[in-house]
Amino acid sequence: TNQVVALTSAQLSSLASAQVAALSSNAIGAIETADIVGLTTANVAALRSAQLVGLATAQVAALSTGQIAALSTAAVSGLSTNQIVALTTAQASSLSTAQVAGLSTAAVAALETADFAALKSDAIAALSANQVKALTTNQVVALTTAEAAALSTAQVAALSTDAIAALETADLSAIKTAAVAALSSAQVAALTTAQVNNLATASLAA
Fold first, then answer.
1. C-alpha pair distances (Å), 195 with each of 11, 142, 186, 201
2. The pLDDT of residue 204
3. For the chain, which residues make up each domain, given as ranges?
4. In the predicted model, is pLDDT for residue 5 greater than 90?
5. Would you indicate the residue range of the signal peptide (predicted)?
6. Contact between 47 and 71 (Cβ < 8 Å)
7. pLDDT tens, 83-108?
């Protein structure tokens, strides 16, 4: 690990993917935070989830958006909740649909509200029912109108009553008519007066 610590950003960028893939989690964790941007996207793509365990939160936050996007789905799914919390908004917005879909329910719930709101609409649409169930009310409040519109009927059905009540009126109005029509009686009962008043006529008629 002492040898890894001594590597400069330029030296890291010269490593072959096979060399990076052979590093232990301790060696990965020994990379200086300021130098970690030296890893090429090809090197980052070669990293395994077992190696990423060694990354400190500061190292995670120092990764470029290109490096984050280059991580394999398996590697991203292995990130700890602390590492997920360390993601910047820009990094969160660079996550692919497959990467987001591969996150554990604990990881999804750990996303900071600004980071969750920064996810691509396609990534939101790819969330499983279990991932949707794990959303916090703060995350639901942070949904953008475009993200709310991307929710499927199955995803809306998976929202807790607290989550339904937390939806901003504009976001609720943006949800697909079929999804609103499929709300359970418990979900409908959880709607606030403001939410009901702002629902589109087409949604109510459904």
1. 57, 16, 15, 12
2. 55
3. 1-86, 121-206
4. no
5. 1-18
6. yes
7. 999 999 999 999 999 999 999 999 99
- Full-model pTM: 0.86
Count Cβ atoms within 10 A of the Cβ of residue 139 and give its class: 0-12 exposed, 13-18 middle, 19 or more buried.
Answer: buried
Residue 199 has what pLDDT? 75
Write out the two tokens for 63: 């990764």
Q: Tell me the DSSP string of the chain.
A: -HHHHT--HHHHHTS-HHHHHTS-HHHHHTS-GGGGGGS-HHHHHT--HHHHTT--HHHHHHS-HHHHHHS-HHHHHT--HHHHHH--HHHHHT--HHHHHTS-HHHHHHS-HHHHHTS-HHHHHT--HHHHHT--HHHHHH--HHHHHH--HHHHHHS-HHHHHHS-HHHHHHS-HHHHHT--HHHHHH--HHHHHHS-HHHHH-
* Tens digit of each residue's pLDDT (9 = 90 or more) over 118-142: 999 999 999 999 999 999 999 999 9
And the tokens for 98? 């497959």
Q: Is 118 in contact with 89 (CB distance < 8 Å)?
A: yes
